[in-house]
Specification:
InterPro entries: Adenyl_kinase_AK6, P-loop_NTPase. It is built from 7 helices and 7 strands; from the N terminus they run βαβαββαββαααβα. With about 180 residues, it is α/β, with parallel strands linked by helices. It starts with 14 loop residues before the first strand and ends in a 5-residue tail after the last helix.
């Protein structure tokens, strides 16, 4: 097995976190990358619903209140095995040791606004997510939670950006075992 800079043994396959504001293309990118790189895609929103890993419903934001401890307990063994793409709009509650690369997708606000309104976002939920993107909240969260050299921001405004990102990330996965 290859060694990382900390001297720990690496997994056989890398784990990647794909994060960003809702509507930035996380799931689309994750699904395409999972197929291209033969990795397992884990959509946290779907996992929370399927396994009941929540503490109820938030009417104001029209979503489940994620129980972060239950999510981490559920994922522990899979993450230790490696070969996962985790797709979620937050990142600060996952253990740092789980990820070899953290990708923050970013989308132009006018594009993001259109995507979110098509999804039915309105009021506080819409404005909160647009502000989150404007102020780069998720990029800062990723930089505060993980080593700087594994965090990358990628533009995700259109299908060409997504294709480029999937290609770039697939190359990274192929070369991962030879990284220091």
């Amino acid at each position: 097995m290859a060694q990382n800079g900390g001297g720990r043994k690496k997994r056989e396959r890398p784990n990647i976190l794909i994060t960003g504001t809702p509507g930035t293309g996380k799931s689309t990118t994750s699904v395409a990358l999972a197929e291209a790189a033969s990795l397992r895609h884990i959509n946290i929103g779907d996992l929370v619903k399927e396994k009941n890993l929540h503490d109820g419903w938030d009417d104001e934001f029209d979503c489940y209140i994620i129980n972060e401890d239950l999510v981490c307990d559920e994922l522990e063994d899979l993450m230790e095995q490696g070969g996962n793409i985790v797709d979620h709009h937050g990142c600060d509650f996952f253990p740092e040791r789980w990820f070899d690369y953290v990708v923050v997708l970013q989308t132009d606000n006018s594009v993001l606004y259109d995507r979110l309104t098509k999804r039915g976002y309105e009021g506080k939920k819409l404005s909160n997510n647009i502000e989150c993107e404007i102020f780069q909240v998720l990029l800062e969260e990723a930089r505060d939670s993980y080593k700087e050299d594994i965090v990358v921001a990628l533009k995700s405004d259109n299908i060409d950006d997504i294709d480029t990102n999937v290609s770039t990330l697939s190359d990274w996965v192929r070369n991962w075992s030879s990284l220091p």
